[in-house]
Write a structure and sequence with these properties.
Elements (H helix, E strand, L loop, with lengths): L1 E2 L5 E4 L5 E4 L26 E2 L32 E2 L5 E5 L4 E4 L13 E8 L5 E10 L11 E6 L8 E5 L6 E4 L7 E6 L8 E9 L5 E8 L3 E3 L6 E11 L6 E8 L7 E10 L7 E7 L4 E11 L6 E8 L8 E2 L2 E7 L2 E4 L9 E3 L2 E3 L3 E7 L3 E4 L16 E7 L4 E11 L14 E6 L7 E4 L13 E2 L7 E6 L13 E10 L4 E8 L13 E11 L6 E8 L7 E9 L8 E7 L5 E11 L6 E8 L8 E2 L2 E7 L2 E4 L9 E2 L3 E3 L4 E4 L3 E5 L14 E6 L5 E10 L5 E6 L5 E6 L3 E2 L8 E2 L7 E6 L8 E9 L5 E9 L4 E3 L3 E12 L7 E7 L6 H4 E10 L9 E5 L5 E3 L8 E11 L8 E11 L2 E3 L6 E7 L2 E7 L9 H7 L4 E9 L2 E4 L2 E4 L10 E5 L7 E4 L16 E4 L4 E4 L1
Parallel strand pairs: 5-7, 6-8, 16-26, 27-29, 28-30, 48-50, 49-51, 60-69, 70-71, 71-74, 72-75, 73-76, 74-77
Antiparallel strand pairs: 1-4, 2-3, 7-14, 8-13, 9-12, 9-14, 10-11, 10-13, 15-17, 17-22, 18-21, 18-24, 19-20, 19-22, 23-26, 24-25, 29-36, 30-35, 31-34, 31-36, 32-33, 32-35, 37-38, 38-43, 39-42, 39-45, 40-41, 40-43, 44-47, 45-46, 50-58, 51-57, 52-55, 52-56, 52-58, 53-54, 53-57, 59-61, 61-66, 62-65, ...
C-alpha cells in the first residue's frame, strides 16, 4: 500500500517484452496478514495506491472496504514563515501578511519527490485570502509528466471545478484571489524532478473583496493557412478582462463578423479557456454561419474570473472553399452581466488563406474537392526527402461537382525503388486507381524505369464516380537518406465531362537513326490525334499517308496504336501491302475508339531487302477521318528522315570488301554493348584503285581492351591503339586513310577479360585517294605590342590545312611583307620560322628555316604525309642596337608547294614597337645593395630586359622562397645570371624554414623555382 498516486516502473527485457516492478520513491506498507487493519492515506491528494504481484502461489486473497473520509485538520496561526508540508495543514491569516515558501524555505530547493498541500483561511469576517507569487523557479521540461506541479484552488478542497490556476513559468509578480464563500485558498505542490529547483516565494494576506467590474475586450488573430473541409480551425482569440472577483459577472452572448468571407465558412464554435491561453478548452456555444454577422448565445452563461478570460472562436471551413480564398473573423460586441459592450477594434490585423494542400500520411483518408488541390509527400525531419515510414498511405479524391472526374498532374516525382532483387531490398509502392479504394482499375504504377519521372502525363479517373485513389508506401523505416527520394508535388483537379470533339493532329519524326535493308516494322513517323471531352467518343476511321518516293522500296505500310507517347507495335490497327501508291489510304477495318486527350499512332515500314545504301525512308500525313469527318493535317510532314545504311557487325578473322560506304559496329550493334566474344581482326578492302578511309563517330572500350588499327592486313604496321578509351565529339580520333599498297585497313580488337562496353560506330569508305595539297591558310598576329631590344619574340601564327590521302607534301617557301616597319633591316637581326606540326602550342624546338638578315622569303622543306592542320610560327630576333620607338611589322603573303603559290584566306599584320628594358649588374642582399631581397631583384625585371642582367648575391642566409616567372625580352643575347658575390657557392644559402615538401603536382613550387623563365644561369 502506497500513500498517494504511484505508477509501476517498466522496462524492455531486451526481447521485446515489457517488465514491470514496484513504484519507486516513498515508503510502502506491506499488507501481509493485515486482517482488521485500517490504512489511512496521509498523501496531500488523499489517495492510496495498491500494488499486487503473484509470486506463483495461492492464498485466500483479500477483502477490504475503501471509503472517503474527511480528515480533521486543526487550523493554526502561523508564528513565522509558512512552508509547504507533506501533511495537509490549515493556517489562519489575519491582518499581517505572511511569507509563504515551498518546503525548502526562502533559500533551499524543493525536496526530492515532495508532495503536499496547505490551506489558508481568513481570520476576519468579510475577508478573503489572496496570494502573491514574487518568484517561480519550478522544474520545467518538454518530457510529459516530469514538470513540477503547482496548483491553486478556491476553498479548502482539491477539485477540478475549484482550480484557479496551474503555475509553471508564469511571469511574476502574480496575484491569485479566493472567490470561495469561506474565502479560503488551497495550494498544492508536487515535484518528481531528479534535480529539484528553488521552488517559489509568495506572500499570503487577507483582502476585502470588491464586486467584479468589466474592463475591456481585446482580440488577437494570427494569420495562417487553412484547408477546405478543415474542422474546428482556430481563427480568433477573445480576452474579456475584469477587475476584482466578488459577485462575478457572466458572459451570455458574443457577436461576430466574418469580414465578407462567410461563404467559405460552414459552422462556428466558441470555447472558454479560463485565465490561461494554454488552459483546457470547454465548448460553450456553436452556430451555423449563413451571414456576415452571427451571434453565439451561450446555453449557460460563463462565469468570469478576475483578470483575463480567454475565449477561442473556431470555424468549420466549407469543403468547396477555393484555393486562395480568404477566411476572417472579428468580434463586434460582447454581453457581460447583461450589458452589451462594443469592441473598439473588432477586426484585428490579419486573416487566413485557403491553401488546399494534402500531405500524404499513413492510413486511409478521403477528400472531396471542388477545385485545384496540391498533393505532396510528407517531408522527413531532416533533409528534403520523404519520411521513411512503413504503412500504406491511401488517399481518395472525390469529385464535389456532378459529371466531373478527378485528375492528377505531377510537376515533381522521385521515389526509391531498388534495382536489386534480394530479400529486404527497399522498393517503394506508388499506385493510382480509378474509383474509391484499390479494387478499381489500375491507372499507373511506379517501377524502376519511371521512379524518377512519374506518369509523364495527366492521369484521370475512368470510373463512374469520378474518384481517384492513390496509394504510397515508402516500405522502409530506415533513417538512411539513400533509401528515400525527394517525393512528389502534384496538382489534383477536376475534369468536367463533355461530349468528345476533335481538336488537332500532331505529327512527329522521333527516330532519325539509320535503318538497314530488309528491316520490318521500322518506325517512320508518329501521329497524335488529340480530342477533348469523353462523352460520346469518336472513332479514327482512316489515315492518308504520303510515302515521299519510298513506295518502290517498301513492302508494307502499317499503323499501330500505343498507350503512351513511346513507339510500340503491340496493337495493329491497319495495314497496306505492296504494290503501294505515292498517296496511301490506310482504312481501318475496325474503327478505333478514341480517348479524351492524346491518342498515339505510329506509321511503320517493312523495307525491301533491295533498298540501296544512302537512300532515305520518310512519310507524311495529309488527312485523317475522325467520326466520319475528314480533317486536313496542316503540319503533317515533320523534319527528319531515316537513311538506309549497309551495316557490318564485328566478328573476328574476317575480310570485308567495301563498295562505297559501310557502317561498322562492335558485335553488340548500335544499341547494345559488345559481348565477351568480341576478339579478332577484320580487314576492309577497297575497290580497285581506291583506298579505305575510316571516320569515327564514337569509340568506347574498356580498360585492358585494345582497339588496334593496322595499315594493310593483319600483319601490317600499327597506326593506332585505343585502349580503355571513351572518345566522342571534338575528342574523336581524326579519320584514318590507308597508305598500304593494296589500300586496305585492318581493325584488330582484343578483349582478354571478356568485358562489356558501348563499343564503336565507324563509317568505312572506299575512296579514290587524292594527292596531299594545301586546302586553306590562315595567319594571326601573336598577342603583344612591344619588342624589347635583343629579345626574341613570336610575330605570327600560321595554320596550314592539308587534305588528301597520298604522296608527300613539301612546303618549300613562305613569303612575308613588312609594310609599316620603320627600319626593319637595322632593328631585326634574324628572322626565324618554327613548326610544331599539328600541335597548337609554340615550342622553339623545330626550326623550319631562318634568315640571318631581315630577308622575308624563308625557304625550307617539309615531308607531310597525312591530312591535318600544320602550325608554323614567325619569330623576330630584335637587334641589341635596335632603335627604341621604331616599329617592326610582319604579314604572310603566300606559301609555295612545288610550283604553286597559295595565298591565305585570312591574314593579319603583326606590329610591335621597339622598347627598352632592364639590364646591367646589381648587388642584392643588404642595406647598401641595389636590392634588399632576391624577390625585389626579380620584380625589377618583370617589365622586360633589353640586355644582359647579372645579380651578385651578398654573402648570407636568405630565409625565403624564390620564384622566377617568364621575363619578357630574355633571349640568347639577353641572358640572366644569378651568382654569389664572393664566387664561393658556400657563402650564399637560400632556405625556408616553413617549407613543406610538395606532392609534386602541377602547381607545386620548390624553395627556388624557375616558373616560365628562359636563359637563366645560376652560378657559384
Amino acid at each position: 500500500l502506497w500513500n498517494g498516486s504511484k505508477s509501476l516502473n517498466s522496462e524492455d527485457d531486451g526481447f521485446g517484452n515489457t517488465e514491470y516492478s514496484l513504484p519507486s520513491g516513498g515508503d510502502a506498507t506491506y499488507a501481509m496478514n493485515m486482517g482488521n487493519t485500517v490504512f489511512t492515506s496521509s498523501a496531500a491528494d488523499g489517495s492510496v495506491t495498491v500494488f499486487f504481484s503473484n509470486a506463483n502461489g495461492t492464498g485466500s486473497g483479500w477483502k477490504a472496504t475503501v471509503k472517503l473520509i474527511t480528515p480533521t485538520i486543526t487550523p493554526q496561526i502561523p508564528t513565522g514563515d509558512v512552508l509547504m508540508s507533506t501533511t495537509p495543514a490549515i493556517y489562519l491569516i489575519g491582518s499581517t501578511p505572511v511569507n509563504f515558501y515551498d518546503d525548502g524555505g526562502a533559500s533551499g530547493n524543493i525536496s526530492q519527490n515532495f508532495e503536499g498541500r496547505v490551506t489558508f483561511l481568513p481570520t476576519n469576517a468579510g475577508k478573503k485570502i489572496k496570494v502573491t507569487f514574487s518568484s517561480l523557479q519550478l522544474f520545467n521540461t518538454s518530457n510529459t509528466g516530469y514538470n513540477d506541479i503547482l496548483k491553486v484552488y478556491n476553498g479548502k478542497n482539491i477539485a477540478n471545478d475549484s482550480l484557479i490556476a496551474t503555475l509553471l513559468k508564469n511571469p511574476t509578480p502574480l496575484t491569485l484571489k479566493s472567490s470561495a464563500a469561506d474565502g479560503a485558498l488551497t495550494v498544492y505542490l508536487k515535484s518528481t524532478a531528479g534535480l529539484p529547483k528553488p521552488g517559489f516565494a509568495a506572500v499570503v494576506e487577507e483582502y476585502t473583496p470588491q464586486n467584479m467590474t468589466f474592463d475591456n475586450v481585446t482580440l488577437k488573430q494570427t494569420p495562417a493557412e487553412v484547408v477546405a473541409g478543415d474542422k474546428e480551425q482556430s481563427v480568433l482569440s477573445i480576452n474579456i478582462a475584469t477587475s476584482d472577483n466578488d459577485n462575478p459577472l457572466s458572459v451570455s452572448k458574443l457577436n461576430f463578423n466574418t469580414n465578407g468571407t462567410f461563404a467559405n465558412i460552414e459552422k462556428a464554435y466558441l470555447y472558454y479557456l479560463g485565465n490561461d491561453t494554454t488552459g483546457v478548452a470547454h465548448k460553450v456555444g456553436e452556430v451555423n454561419v449563413a451571414a456576415d454577422n452571427f451571434d453565439i448565445t451561450l446555453a449557460t452563461p460563463q462565469t468570469l474570473l478576475e483578470g483575463n478570460n480567454y475565449f477561442l472562436l473556431k470555424y468549420d471551413i466549407k469543403t468547396d472553399a477555393a484555393q486562395g480564398a480568404s477566411i476572417d473573423a472579428g468580434c463586434t460586441s460582447v454581453v457581460v452581466g447583461g450589458t452589451t459592450h462594443t469592441t473598439t477594434a473588432p477586426h484585428p490585423t490579419g486573416s487566413f488563406t485557403v491553401n488546399n494542400t494534402y500531405v500524404s500520411a499513413v492510413g486511409t483518408f478521403s477528400k472531396t474537392i471542388y477545385g485545384d488541390w496540391q498533393f505532396i509527400s510528407k517531408k522527413a525531419m531532416f533533409g528534403n526527402h520523404y519520411e521513411a515510414e512503413m504503412g500504406d498511405q491511401v488517399i481518395t479524391f472525390l469529385p464535389g461537382i456532378p459529371n466531373s472526374k478527378v485528375q492528377i498532374d505531377f510537376s515533381e516525382f522521385a521515389v526509391y525503388i531498388s534495382t536489386n532483387s534480394y530479400p529486404g531490398s527497399v522498393k517503394a509502392k506508388f499506385e493510382i486507381y480509378s474509383g474509391v479504394g484499390t479494387s478499381g482499375t489500375p491507372l499507373w504504377k511506379a517501377d524502376v524505369a519511371n521512379q524518377y519521372t512519374g506518369p509523364g502525363s495527366t492521369v484521370r479517373s475512368k470510373s463512374a464516380d469520378g474518384a481517384l485513389t492513390i496509394v504510397f508506401n515508402a516500405n522502409t523505416s530506415a533513417l538512411y537518406y539513400n533509401f528515400t527520394r525527394k517525393g512528389w508535388k502534384a496538382t489534383v483537379s477536376l475534369h468536367q465531362s463533355v461530349p468528345m470533339t476533335f481538336s488537332r493532329v500532331d505529327v512527329v519524326q522521333k527516330d532519325t537513326s539509320f535503318v538497314t535493308p530488309g528491316t520490318t516494322k521500322a518506325e517512320i513517323i508518329g501521329i497524335n490525334v488529340v480530342t477533348s471531352g469523353e462523352l460520346l467518343p469518336l472513332t479514327l476511321n482512316s489515315v492518308n499517308v504520303g510515302l515521299k518516293g519510298c513506295e518502290s522500296k517498301v513492302k508494307k505500310v502499317s499503323l499501330y496504336h500505343s498507350d503512351g507517347n513511346s513507339f510500340a507495335t503491340d496493337s495493329l490497327v491497319g495495314t497496306l501491302q505492296a504494290p503501294l501508291s505515292a498517296n496511301a489510304v490506310i482504312a481501318l477495318a475496325h474503327p478505333f475508339t478514341l480517348s479524351a486527350g492524346d491518342n498515339y499512332f505510329w506509321v511503320t515500314y517493312d523495307i525491301d531487302s533491295t533498298a540501296t545504301s544512302g537512300s532515305f525512308m520518310d512519310a507524311l500525313v495529309s488527312e485523317v477521318n475522325v467520326g466520319g469527318t475528314a480533317h486536313t493535317v496542316a503540319n503533317g510532314d515533320p523534319a527528319g528522315r531515316r537513311e538506309v545504311k549497309n551495316v557490318y557487325l564485328f566478328r573476328g578473322d574476317d575480310v570485308v570488301n567495301v563498295n562505297g560506304k559501310l557502317m561498322f559496329y562492335d558485335n553488340g550493334g548500335p544499341n547494345t554493348n559488345y559481348k565477351s566474344t568480341a576478339s579478332g581482326a577484320v580487314t576492309f578492302k577497297p575497290r580497285a584503285g581506291e583506298v579505305i578511309k575510316i571516320v569515327f563517330n564514337y569509340i568506347n572500350t574498356d580498360n585492358g581492351d585494345h582497339f588496334i588499327v593496322r595499315n594493310g592486313g593483319v600483319a601490317g604496321e600499327e597506326i593506332a591503339d585505343y585502349s580503355g578509351t571513351i572518345l566522342v565529339g571534338d575528342n574523336l580520333p581524326k579519320p584514318i586513310v590507308s597508305s598500304a599498297a593494296d589500300g586496305s585497313l585492318t581493325i584488330e580488337f582484343k578483349d582478354p577479360k571478356g568485358t562489356y562496353n558501348k563499343g564503336w560506330e565507324i563509317e568505312v569508305y572506299s575512296i579514290v585517294p587524292r594527292p596531299l595539297a594545301i586546302s586553306n591558310i590562315t595567319a594571326t598576329a601573336v598577342q603583344g605590342s612591344n619588342l624589347l631590344k635583343g629579345a626574341q619574340e613570336q610575330m605570327l601564327k600560321i595554320d596550314v590545312s592539308v587534305e588528301g590521302e597520298r604522296d608527300t607534301l613539301n612546303i618549300s617557301s613562305f613569303d612575308f611583307s613588312t609594310v609599316g616597319s620603320t627600319n626593319i633591316g637595322a632593328d631585326i637581326s634574324k628572322v626565324r620560322l618554327y613548326t610544331t606540326g599539328i600541335n597548337d602550342r609554340f615550342v622553339a624546338h623545330n626550326e623550319y628555316a631562318h634568315n640571318d638578315t631581315a630577308v622575308l622569303r624563308i625557304n625550307g622543306s617539309t615531308a607531310i604525309v597525312k591530312e591535318g592542320v600544320y602550325k608554323f610560327w614567325l619569330v623576330y630576333d630584335a637587334s641589341p642596337s635596335a632603335t627604341i620607338g621604331n616599329t617592326v611589322t610582319a604579314k604572310l603573303d603566300s606559301v609555295k608547294t612545288g610550283t604553286r603559290w597559295t595565298t591565305p584566306s585570312t591574314t593579319a599584320t603583326a606590329s610591335r614597337n621597339i622598347v627598352g628594358g632592364f639590364s646591367g649588374t646589381y648587388t642584392v642582399g643588404d642595406g647598401s645593395s641595389d636590392y634588399p631581397t632576391i624577390k625585389a631583384a626579380i620584380d625589377a625585371m618583370k617589365g622586360g630586359i633589353d640586355g644582359k642582367v647579372v645579380f651578385n648575391i651578398v654573402n648570407g642566409i636568405y630565409d625565403q622562397t624564390v620564384v622566377i616567372p617568364h621575363i619578357p625580352g630574355a633571349s640568347p643575347e639577353n641572358t640572366i645570371t644569378i651568382k654569389s658575390e664572393s664566387g664561393n657557392p658556400q657563402d650564399v644559402t637560400i632556405q625556408y624554414d616553413k617549407y613543406v615538401l610538395p606532392k609534386f603536382q602541377g602547381k607545386d613550387l620548390g624553395i627556388f623555382s624557375i616558373n616560365g623563365a628562359d636563359y637563366i644561369t645560376i652560378e657559384n
